[in-house]
Amino acid sequence: MPKTSTRPRISTRRGLLSLSPMMLFMALYLAVSLFAGDFYAMPLPVAFAAASAWGLATIRNATLPERVEVFSRGAAQPGILYMIWVYILAGAFASLAKGCGAIDATVALALHYLPSAYILPGLFAAACFISVSIGTSVGTVVALCPLAVSIAQAGGCEVPLFVAAVLGGAFFGDNLSFISDTTIAATRSQGVGMEAKFKANFRVVLPAALVSLALYISMGAGVPETTPSLHGNPWLVVPYLLIIFLSFIGVNVVAVLGCGIVASFVIAMSLGSDWLVLVRSLGEGISGMGELTLVTLLAAGLLGVISHTGGIDWLLRVMTARIATSRGARGVIACLVGVVNLCTANNTVAIITVGTIARDIARRYSIPGARTASLLDTCSCIVQCLIPYGAQTLLATSLAGISPVSLLPYLYYPYVLALIVAGFIVFAPSGARAVGE
């Protein structure tokens, strides 16, 4: 990405106007929800549609078709369309697995062999382990979220709590894994090796994961013992175990979901299920992802408009204007990637966007490259996990049928991680070398 200094200078008035569509979205969604006392009151598609309409109005010197083209280019990025394929397949698999009894059979198996007190922390630990192995939070959500929802419902527990445990664990690996796209983007942007970044990062994320695990163990102790009332043919467990196994060994998430759908269909048919019923389940699952797909397209298009009008460039320039100390430089790097992630709803894009500027700041204030890469990756993952319109949160809550905001009280991992990162920013000695450098 070219440095912002090579771009035309944007005035404060123009910069604020460029960012105003995102401000409008947040104001509409939060204000209406808080006023109504219900976070289902303002549908995300409506809030994004209103913000997108205003975003088109902020584009200067262009006809309406040209403005719509800017929006459409942002929405039609290959990465966005890839995520939509994942949504469609995830919805189809979850609905088919539920319809044929695969998830119920897996839940019955888990409740039979695992004490209830260990199910919640076990889900968090499993999410951490799988996400480190496969390097993607989306794949981890796909693998574990339907199971977490069904276990919570079978035990009469709060579904958002169980989904939040999976989501927090999913971002543990997204942040730490060697094969995560965020790790690759962070290390390449800072010109450091993955091992150095891993060692610097590990000392930050491990305490957060251990504290979160302790909290989930404490809360799991209050989960009532459950005698599984669900029954099913043991063969119905195979599709779900296949999904988890293929995810663990690193198979592409699209291929994983395709295999899970085929396995569920074949096994259900062999056990006497009506193929028309199975096909209807597939259709219902795909249709259920309609709102999620629409929100993703609207959010991506809105980002395209904000980038086109210079909002991101202005934001980077303003936030880097007054840095006086190494501590301030660390804080600015953390805030930069966090705020850009807030606007883009994509942690990898946020890292790539601010990577060059972060590297310049780090060199000027003697911040080791591995620590800068760790800051970029960690802070972007914190924000991505907490925003209700992030792809991972939207996918998890769509599969669970709950509001994205309902997870916020239970996302212990990003909250604890944010406190630890804040402590590092404030108390780390200036110019200290990172572990592994």
Give a written overview of the molecule.
This protein is 75% helix and 0% strand. It is mainly alpha-helical and 437 residues long. The longest helix has 27 residues, at 194-220. It is globular. Mean pLDDT is 84; it is low at 1-6 and 432-437.
Which terms summarize this structure?
437 residues; disordered C terminus; 0% strand; mainly alpha
Summarize the SSE layout with pairings.
Blueprint: H1 12-36, H2 44-57, H3 64-75, H4 78-100, H5 102-113, H6 119-134, H7 137-154, H8 159-176, H9 181-190, H10 194-220, H11 238-248, H12 253-270, H13 275-288, H14 290-308, H15 311-319, H16 326-344, H17 347-364, H18 369-386, H19 391-400, H20 412-427
Helix pairs in contact: 1-2, 1-14, 1-15, 2-14, 3-14, 4-12, 4-13, 4-14, 4-19, 5-7, 6-7, 6-8, 6-10, 7-8, 7-11, 7-19, 8-10, 8-18, 8-19, 9-17, 9-18, 10-18, 10-20, 11-12, 15-16, 16-17, 16-18, 16-20, 17-18, 18-20
Offer a concise description of the structure.
This protein is mainly α and 437 residues long. 75% of the residues lie in helices and 0% in strands. α6 packs antiparallel against α10.
